[in-house]
Design goal:
The protein is α/β, with parallel strands linked by helices and about 130 residues long. It is built from five helices and seven strands; from the N terminus they run E-H-E-H-E-E-E-H-E-H-E-H. Strand 4 and strand 5 form a beta hairpin. Helix 2 packs parallel to helix 3.
Length: about 130
């Protein structure tokens, strides 16, 4: 099962738009401007495969949102985006299940590469499971 649907949660509308335009060529992209919008999406039966989450949202914490997303979508891959990066925060995010931790500003091409790599990894996991 490859990544089909990507959720982007960031309060910076220009970044959301840039990510949407870059990823929408390969993936179905859904955006949310804050924690509440993302939480509302979790209440639907919408299947999510990957989430790009801002660490600091105006109405909540990206790590807590990641935990909630993983409860609703156990196989979801998460990339944390932050302008407030530290080694401690990156380690904490990884321990809680983040696949990547990317500090802003970042190169869009590098982020797309990280998404594509997660997609390839997910495809390999699915194939491995099928073969077993």
């Amino acid at each position: 099962m490859s990544i089909k649907r990507v959720l982007i949660v960031d309060d910076d509308s220009s970044l959301r738009t840039a990510l949407f335009r870059s990823l929408n060529k390969k993936y179905q992209v859904i955006t949310a401007a804050n924690y509440a919008e993302a939480a509302g999406l979790m209440q639907t039966d919408l299947k999510l495969d990957l989430a790009l989450l801002d660490l600091k949202l105006p109405d909540g914490d990206g790590l807590h949102l990641m935990t909630e997303l993983k409860n609703h979508h156990p196989h979801i891959k998460v990339i944390i985006l932050t302008g407030h990066g530290s080694v401690e925060t990156a380690v904490d995010a990884t321990k809680k299940g983040a696949s990547h931790f990317i500090t802003k500003p970042f190169n869009i091409a590098e982020l797309i590469s990280a998404v594509d790599n997660l997609n390839n990894f997910q495809n390999l996991e699915t194939e491995n499971h099928r073969l077993k």
